[in-house]
Fold:
Amino acid sequence: MGIRQNVFKAVFNLLDTNKPSGWNIRASLNNYDSTFPTLVVNKALVEDERDTHGKATGAKNVSIVIEVVTHIKSAPEKMDEGKDNVHETLTADSSFNSLYTSNDLTFVSLTDIGEAERDINGQMYRSSRMVLRLLKA
Structure:
């Protein structure tokens, strides 16, 4: 498996193992077969790191977007529960061993990039995105 698949699988499995009771986790959010509240782990994006002369350093910047999606009626409590769970799971000491160290990854940051309302099958939901940034040496 390549770096994209390895990082996706490791993050997905870690969040799935630690998700709050009653939550679902998906690799994509399809509009006709989803149960909420849901964590959505998107594909990992990989970018080669370059030195000041434009040469590849061998290191790779990896980012993965995790979406927290809740029904509008249960927000903001469920939204906070989901975002707190993602943050605590991905920054816990145990994650540094199981996710980062074992996959030769360095944690760079976990950033909450805001919330928005969205319509899914005529129902209103609140969605928030968090970006996990890693470095693969």
